[in-house]
Amino acid sequence: xxxxxxxxxxxxxxAPLHQVSRTFINNIGVRNDRIIGxxxxxxxxxxxxxxxxxxxxxxxxxxxxxxxxxxxxxxxxNFTLDLWNVQQYILYCL
Length: 94
Description:
Order of helices and strands: EHEEHEH
Low-confidence stretches: none
Shape: globular
Largest sheet: 2 strands, parallel
Number of domains: 1
Distance between the termini: 36 Å
Number of helices: 3
Structural class: alpha+beta
Strand content: 15-25%
Oligomer: single chain
Mean pLDDT: 94
């Protein structure tokens, strides 16, 4: 059976993570030490692209696992997902 519990939760919103959200995350099995990002007012918020706390590096071999021939040669070793870009897209769509 596939593990569906997140290994890490990153809060990258424009306000600290609400307690209702934290409770939900804890109830699905994520420990408090695996919740990072903008959790309270003194934490750095995701306010610009390229902030190290808000970058997710995804190894290409995980994305292409099971793909015939493996990772294509022109693909970089890692993909970097900048959560600021995700945040901005969500805010634009609201």
